[in-house]
């Protein structure tokens, strides 16, 4: 029985980094998402705002078509297209090239605030999202070490979004459009990959502890009883602050 659990754990650990990356569109998706930004910045420098908007939109459409032809996952491409479309619309309405980055700037503030707030109320978003996607329930909250791991991962995401907002908002206010484009690329997926690595660490840590609990679970013991036993062993993370 324990050998099966160990085998399942090993397979799960091997899949986790790949699954997270695949949800972002894989390595190709990371590259594709950067192309419209580069095209916009270059076109704006050479020809001005309107040609830059059309070039960015055209590039996003072309990427979507290429992914369809190659039968690659469409969700990242479609999401990327709508992101470029919203950014282009804001740039058109504001009449300024820097408006192309405004949506992403404020989105970073909102996301960062949500991730930070979730740790303050002891429901770290990384744990909530992962357990919801995999139907793991809320038992992880009874394990203080799992909660701490998810807190660290969630705060890492909050720091990434917070850094993006602070730096890019300053560049926006000082009208440095070219540097704003460079900052968006440099602070985009490179920082996200760092946050993903921390997330994978937290997920693996929590999942191993969850599997350990399940392997020790008595045949007639309910999930609530098992959770209560874990809570008595490790303490209540919500009460640990007091």
TrEMBL record:
Protein name: Uncharacterized protein DUF3159
Positions of region (Disordered): 213-242
InterPro entries (UniProt xref): UCP010219
TM stretches of this protein: 24-43, 49-69, 76-94, 100-126, 147-167, 179-203
Keyword entries, A-Z: Membrane, Transmembrane, Transmembrane helix
Residue ranges, compositional bias (Acidic residues): 217-226
UniProt organism field: Herbihabitans rhizosphaerae
Biased composition (Basic and acidic residues): 227-242
Any Pfam family the entry gives: DUF3159
């Amino acid at each position: 029985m324990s050998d099966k659990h160990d085998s399942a754990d090993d397979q799960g650990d091997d899949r986790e980094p790949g699954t997270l990356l695949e949800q972002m569109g894989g390595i190709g998706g990371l590259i594709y998402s950067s192309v419209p930004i580069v095209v916009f910045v270059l076109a704006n420098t050479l020809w001005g705002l309107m040609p830059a908007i059309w070039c960015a939109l055209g590039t996003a459409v072309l990427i979507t078509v290429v992914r369809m032809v190659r039968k690659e996952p469409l969700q990242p491409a479609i999401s990327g297209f709508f992101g470029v479309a919203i950014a282009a619309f804001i740039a058109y309405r504001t009449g300024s090239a820097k408006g192309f980055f405004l949506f992403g700037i404020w989105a970073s503030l909102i996301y960062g605030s949500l991730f930070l707030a979730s740790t303050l109320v002891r429901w770290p978003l990384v744990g909530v999202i992962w357990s919801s996607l995999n139907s793991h329930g809320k038992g992880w909250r009874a394990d203080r070490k799992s909660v701490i791991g998810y807190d660290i991962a969630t705060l890492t995401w909050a720091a990434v979004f917070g850094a993006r907002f602070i730096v890019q908002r300053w560049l926006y206010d000082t009208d440095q459009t070219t540097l704003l484009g460079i900052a968006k690329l440099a602070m985009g997926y490179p920082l996200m990959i760092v946050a993903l690595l921390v997330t994978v660490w937290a997920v693996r840590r929590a999942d191993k502890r969850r599997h350990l609990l399940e392997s020790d679970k008595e045949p007639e013991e309910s999930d609530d009883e098992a959770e209560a036993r874990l809570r008595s062993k490790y303490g209540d993370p919500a009460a640990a602050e007091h």
